[in-house]
Design a protein that fits this description.
Low-confidence stretches: 16-29, 31-38
Largest sheet: 6 strands, antiparallel
Distance between the termini: 88 Å
CATH class: Mainly Beta
Order of helices and strands: HHHHEEEEEE
Structural class: alpha+beta
Strand content: 25-35%
Amino acid sequence: MTDETTKDAAAQTPVEATEEKSTAEIPVRETPAESATTDTPAADKTNNMKVSKNVETLASQGAYANLQPGMTIKVFQKIKETSAKGEEKERLQMFEGIILAHKHGKEAGATITVRKKVGNIGVERIFPLNSPFIEKIEIVKAARVRRAKLYFLRNWKKRLLEKTVD
């Protein structure tokens, strides 16, 4: 700074100095959410809105409200695969197992924990019920249980008494 600018700044009263600062333009930064929405094409926005509306309608209807721990179910999930040529294929993958837990009731974020045994190894997956990737859920059979969460089945050697569902 030169000597002339320091003299001018000293000559100003504090009120004048604050007025000059308030008239200066302050750059406004975008929030991460705003910057993400401006970069995506309009088609993606409408697609995301459709998916979220579908999730909300499924949650409000309680499409899978009758699922309970102890039921053996088949979950059919859509899987997108890319081949070596770059082609995308969509297929259904089935996961059959027993429901250990059903969490969050009829909310949009409701989930079920399903466990199956492959050989001597137990495999668990958590499925969001209102996901657009879940094609359908079939009930195979149901067991009579007295617990809301069946985590004891992880290290329990016996089987549950089950009845078949028509």
